[in-house]
Amino acid sequence: MKTVPGVSCVHEGISHVLAVFLKLRELRGTDAILDRILLEARKICRAEAGSILLVKEDRLVFSIVHNDFLFSADGINKHLYLNASVPIDDFSIAGFTAKHSETLLLDDVYALPRSYPFKFNPAFDKQSGYHTRSVLSLPLINFQGRVCAVIQLINSLGQDNKAVPFPEDSVACVSLLANHASACIENGMATSELILRTIRMSELRDPAETGPHVQRVGAYSAEIYHRMAQESGLDASEIKRRKDLVRMAAMLHDVGKVGISDVILKKPGKLTEGEYETMKRHTLYGAHLFRNSASELDVMAREIALNHHQRFDGKGYPGRVSNIEDVDAMTVGTMAGGDIPQPARIVALADVFDALISKRAYKEPWTMGMALDVIRKESGQQFDPEVVSAFLSILDVIEAIRGKYQEAG
Ligand SMILES: [Fe+2]
Ligand SMILES: [Fe+2]
Question: I need a surface site. Which of 26, 35, 76, 250 has the fewest CB within 10 A?
């Protein structure tokens, strides 16, 4: 069992919190920000597990979950895609925290006084074999004074690594972190919201590019990247930072479709050869949208938009192009294998896989077995074999992502 090293006294805790704020400023996406906040909050009070639930309308949605007893925070696991939420009301610990904006310090959740309106829900413990004992539940308040999230820390570990009540002096430090964390979370959510708005714009044009489709492609790509980066021995914090960029950039893979006419995008039948040639230009238009940018996210978004239809064997499009700064760029040769940027090789598989298992206007969804057969058969031809093998090694996570981001209706 891995344990979180603690930050013992209040003074140390405060300087730790200040250092965390500096690190948080380097992160762009909500997932990486939440992950970091939870990890640092857990360090303050040696919490073995925890979660952050974000307020979405009148519910709290589990958005990040850590549990060192059940899984490593640095690993790839399906629990990160837990599709669960609780109402904001008096009856659950998190719901009560959000509704009343109150911090709860509970020494043993299985022995709560009967006078408390909320109860502990033992479902996760029963299912996983974990035993929750002490809980510290705090509201995260945004600049408008509203609760935007709840952070729950579980089982503070004592000297012998047994769960003990949370030390009262840790509450002040975690509260300080929580108060400032809400601004970072809102920044991350603003970036995600901006990306989703851009995607909604392309969804208006191309009905196949739905919000859930791009969220799935983003999440599949991030997890495949994580596995490949782990295998290449990259440092865990660098993996998390880049993983978040991959997720966001992958979501933007088809934004270049805004440059394609409705006559082609919404044509019910097969495209003519000329129309197909025009359609292929969405890769160039996408790259053009992110031109001249120095930001890491934009550079990756450009690589993915341009190259997500390249094939590993060099038979994809647009191939090597003359000058991507030019919206009328021309193909000047083929592009194959390792010359295709790695994030684009990953998105190529994630996008095709999702299209195969989804219902489209022209086809019913394929079964998982049929889709996996195609992916295996195309390893080394359409897809990078290393991407295929990373994808096949995380199928439980892929299934969890499918479960989390489903089409509406
Ligand atoms: Fe595309
Ligand atoms: Fe797509």
Answer: 26
